[in-house]
Amino acid sequence: MPSAVKINALCELCHCRKAVMRRPKNLQKLCKECFIHVFETEIHRTIQREHLFYRGESVAIGASGGKDSTVLAAVMKTLNERYDYGLHLILLSIDEGIVGYRDDSLATVKRNQSQYEMPLEIVSYKQLYDWTMDEIVACSGIKSSCTYCGVLRRQALDRGALKLEVHHVITGHNADDMAETVLLNILRGDTARIEQSVNITTNSQGSPVKRSKPFKYAYEKEIVLYAHYRKLDYFSTECTYAPEAFRGTARTLLKNLELVRPSCILDIIHSGEQLKLKHKRRNASSEMEVRSNGSVSLPNKDGNRCERCGYLSTNRICKACILLEGLEINRAKVQIDGTSVDGAAKLTKTLEHLAF
Ligand code: SF4
C-alpha cells in the first residue's frame, strides 16, 4: 500500500492533482493517474527497447489468476490497443491439480477471460502426466514439491503454447523475482545460473517456445498498487505447498534491503547482467559442458526427442519423465510394503546434476 504522503503535496509529474502515494521505485510523490500512466509507459519502453514482439505475433500470457499475471494481462491489453502492437493475446493457464488453491485461482482467470476479452486455454498436469500436484505431494512429501512443479510446469507451458500454435509465452515475473533469484544463486554459489536468471527472454533447452518477462524492471509493490488503483480482479491466496525455505530467506533478505535502499532491486539485477562467467570449462570433443557447480549438461543437441514421451528434449530422457519415473518407483514401493523409499527425491538430486 502507498506510503503516507502529506495531504497538501502535489503530484511531482502533473503538478496539479494531489499526490496519493510515494512511488516504491524512487519515492516520487504521484497522483493515481500519473502513477498508472508512468507504470504502463515504463513497460512499453521495456518492450520497445528489447524488441520483445513483432506485429501480428500470437502471444500466450501465462495466467495464474495471481496479481502479477492479472496485471500483465491488463497492461498488455492496454498497450496493445494504445500503441497498436498488432498482437493476438491469449491466456494460457496451467492446472497443477492443487485443491483449494488452483481451482479457486482458475475461477479468477475465467473471469479475467471475459473482462479482457481474450481466449483462454487451460492445460492440466493430470491430462499431460496423469499426476496432480496433490498426488505427487501425497506420494513424495512436500519437501521437493516446487522442484517437481517447476519442471512439470515449464513443459506444460510449452505444450499448451504449441497446442495453440503459439511460440511466445510471456510471464508475470517481476524485478523482485529476478533480484531474488540472483541473490539465491549467489547464496548457493551457483554462479553459472546468474547470467541466465536475468535474461528478459529465455528458451528451455530444445524448446521452440520462447519465454519473455515484460515486468523485468517492474517492482512487486508497484504491481500491487497498479492492481489496487485499477481495481483489478485477482486471486491473492498463497499456494498450499509454500515455496522452499531457502528461497523464503532470500526473499526476506531482499525486502529488508529494499527498506533501506529501494534501488537495490534494480541494482542487483544490474549486477547480475554484468556478471559474465570468464571461463566455462567445455570439453570440445564431447560437447559436454561442466558447470562451475560440478554439474554437467549431456551431449545431445536441440531438436532431439525424449525416448519416453517423445517431447522435445536435449537429453535422452526429458526432465519431466525422470521425475515421473521416480514418482512411479515411490508409488509402487508404498503399495508393496507401505513405505516410501523417496525414490523421486533421489531422482530430483540426479536431475539437479543434469541440464538445468
Ligand atoms: Fe507449484 Fe510450488 Fe508454486 Fe505451489 S508454490 S504452484 S507447488 S511451484
Automatic annotation (TrEMBL):
<dbReference type="InterPro" id="IPR020554">
    <property type="entry name" value="UPF0021_CS"/>
</dbReference>
<keyword id="KW-0820">tRNA-binding</keyword>
<dbReference type="GO" id="GO:0000049">
    <property type="term" value="F:tRNA binding"/>
</dbReference>
<keyword id="KW-0819">tRNA processing</keyword>
<dbReference type="InterPro" id="IPR000541">
    <property type="entry name" value="Ncs6/Tuc1/Ctu1"/>
</dbReference>
<comment type="pathway">
    <text>tRNA modification; 5-methoxycarbonylmethyl-2-thiouridine-tRNA biosynthesis.</text>
</comment>
<feature type="binding site">
    <location>
        <position position="177"/>
    </location>
    <ligand>
        <name>ATP</name>
    </ligand>
</feature>
<dbReference type="GO" id="GO:0032447">
    <property type="term" value="P:protein urmylation"/>
</dbReference>
<dbReference type="GO" id="GO:0016779">
    <property type="term" value="F:nucleotidyltransferase activity"/>
</dbReference>
<dbReference type="InterPro" id="IPR056369">
    <property type="entry name" value="CTU1-like_ATP-bd"/>
</dbReference>
<dbReference type="GO" id="GO:0005524">
    <property type="term" value="F:ATP binding"/>
</dbReference>
<keyword id="KW-0547">Nucleotide-binding</keyword>
<dbReference type="GO" id="GO:0002143">
    <property type="term" value="P:tRNA wobble position uridine thiolation"/>
</dbReference>
<keyword id="KW-0694">RNA-binding</keyword>
<feature type="domain" description="tRNA(Ile)-lysidine/2-thiocytidine synthase N-terminal">
    <location>
        <begin position="59"/>
        <end position="243"/>
    </location>
</feature>
<dbReference type="Pfam" id="PF16503">
    <property type="entry name" value="zn-ribbon_14"/>
</dbReference>
<keyword id="KW-0067">ATP-binding</keyword>
<feature type="binding site">
    <location>
        <position position="68"/>
    </location>
    <ligand>
        <name>ATP</name>
    </ligand>
</feature>
<feature type="binding site">
    <location>
        <position position="172"/>
    </location>
    <ligand>
        <name>ATP</name>
    </ligand>
</feature>
<feature type="binding site">
    <location>
        <begin position="62"/>
        <end position="64"/>
    </location>
    <ligand>
        <name>ATP</name>
    </ligand>
</feature>
<protein>
    <recommendedName>
        <fullName>Cytoplasmic tRNA 2-thiolation protein 1</fullName>
        <ecNumber>2.7.7.-</ecNumber>
    </recommendedName>
</protein>
<dbReference type="InterPro" id="IPR014729">
    <property type="entry name" value="Rossmann-like_a/b/a_fold"/>
</dbReference>
<comment type="similarity">
    <text>Belongs to the TtcA family. CTU1/NCS6/ATPBD3 subfamily.</text>
</comment>
<dbReference type="InterPro" id="IPR035107">
    <property type="entry name" value="tRNA_thiolation_TtcA_Ctu1"/>
</dbReference>
<dbReference type="InterPro" id="IPR032442">
    <property type="entry name" value="CTU1_C"/>
</dbReference>
<dbReference type="InterPro" id="IPR011063">
    <property type="entry name" value="TilS/TtcA_N"/>
</dbReference>
<keyword id="KW-0963">Cytoplasm</keyword>
<dbReference type="Pfam" id="PF01171">
    <property type="entry name" value="ATP_bind_3"/>
</dbReference>
<keyword id="KW-0808">Transferase</keyword>
<dbReference type="GO" id="GO:0002144">
    <property type="term" value="C:cytosolic tRNA wobble base thiouridylase complex"/>
</dbReference>
<comment type="function">
    <text>Plays a central role in 2-thiolation of mcm(5)S(2)U at tRNA wobble positions of tRNA(Lys), tRNA(Glu) and tRNA(Gln). Directly binds tRNAs and probably acts by catalyzing adenylation of tRNAs, an intermediate required for 2-thiolation. It is unclear whether it acts as a sulfurtransferase that transfers sulfur from thiocarboxylated URM1 onto the uridine of tRNAs at wobble position. Prior mcm(5) tRNA modification by the elongator complex is required for 2-thiolation. May also be involved in protein urmylation.</text>
</comment>
<feature type="domain" description="Cytoplasmic tRNA 2-thiolation protein 1 C-terminal">
    <location>
        <begin position="304"/>
        <end position="335"/>
    </location>
</feature>
<feature type="binding site">
    <location>
        <position position="94"/>
    </location>
    <ligand>
        <name>ATP</name>
    </ligand>
</feature>
<dbReference type="GO" id="GO:0005739">
    <property type="term" value="C:mitochondrion"/>
</dbReference>
